[in-house]
Amino acid sequence: MSGIRITALALMVGTMFVGGCSRSTVKIDGSSTVLPITEAVGEVFREQRPDVHIIGGRAGTGGGFKKFSNGEIDICNASRPISEVEKEACAKNGVEFIPFTIAFDGLSVCVNPQNDWCDCLTVDQLKAIWQPESSVNNWSDLDPAWPDEEIKLYGPGLDSGTFDFFTKAIVGEEKKSRKEFTQSEDDNVLVVGVAGDVHSLGYFGLAYYENNQQKLKLLGVDPGDGNCVKPSQKTVRDTSYKPLSRPLFIYVRKSSLERADVRAFVEFFLQNVGNEVEKTGYVPAPEETSAENLGVLKDTLSAVELDKKKGG
């Protein structure tokens, strides 16, 4: 799937959301990283079930969980596990949920293709760049041999699960980051920013690099052992790309499974997501994880039916 196709699908789905909902609707929001996966599965699902509208957005993982805990959406795309605060918000509002691990991803650290001085950064160098009150402003602050030019930084917005994961993995504390960078919940905006500035540096999900390779240069990351590794399907799967590999999730609202349209979509999603994941540049979850997901869904649907009978 090309970057253009991802953008087109996102706009189409967003238009459906704004334009109104029919009775048979599945509402999804949350992580922009996971969005290409849910869009890809949704596109195939719509071919079989054109009567069901799949509508969604890219509010970021944190923004998605806010809507999810308020009962506004059926499914939350998430690039990190739900936090304790978000769990409490769900409990307060009576929102029960089921998490499913659907894929794995590696965050890509990218520069402009005209950058011919940097091929790899250590975790310590990345921390020096991104930590609060950073004194690194120019490339020469990292290496005197590099250009004495300002590093133009691009990164996910503060509601993004990618932002949370990166700051935890690199800076050492979630949400701790320098403030001077161009941020967006839309990873395509970050790609355009890095592609348009020779002195830029940014980070986003690996799929967005793989869909825009001609516009970007991928850097390797050295975790501190002298081994510089670039993210790829292989290095994310075998965990040799450290520390920027992570699982991706969808969270399903249990009460939404009482509706036939949501049940049909979630079951289709879990049965078919493995076929679509690699097309979007991510790493499929192991077969045992997929089997476990379907088992959990089956048990949950049985419990939902039992609750309905008791309530009736």
Keywords, please?
single chain, disordered N terminus, 312 residues, D-Maltodextrin-Binding Protein, domain 2, two-stranded parallel ribbon, alpha/beta, 2 domains
List the helices and strands and how they pair.
Blueprint: H1 3-19, E1 25-30, H2 35-48, E2 53-56, H3 60-69, E3 75-78, H4 84-92, E4 97-111, E5 120-122, H5 123-130, E6 152-156, H6 161-171, E7 182-184, H7 187-195, E8 200-205, H8 206-210, E9 217-218, E10 220-222, H9 233-237, E11 245-253, H10 260-277, E12 283-284, H11 287-311
Parallel strand pairs: 1-2, 1-3, 5-10, 6-7, 6-8
Antiparallel strand pairs: 3-11, 4-8, 4-9, 4-11, 4-12
Helix pairs in contact: 2-10, 3-4, 10-11
Looking at the structure, what is the overall shape? elongated
Tally of separate domains: 2
Could you give a short account of the major beta sheet?
A: 10 strands, mixed
What's the total number of strands?
Answer: 12
What would you note in describing this structure?
There is one protein chain. With 312 residues, this protein is α/β, with parallel strands linked by helices. It has two domains: 3-104 and 247-311, 3-Layer(aba) Sandwich (D-Maltodextrin-Binding Protein, domain 2), CATH 3.40.190.10; 106-245, D-Maltodextrin-Binding Protein, domain 2 (3-Layer(aba) Sandwich), CATH 3.40.190. The protein is built from eleven helices and twelve strands. It is elongated, with a radius of gyration of 20 Å.
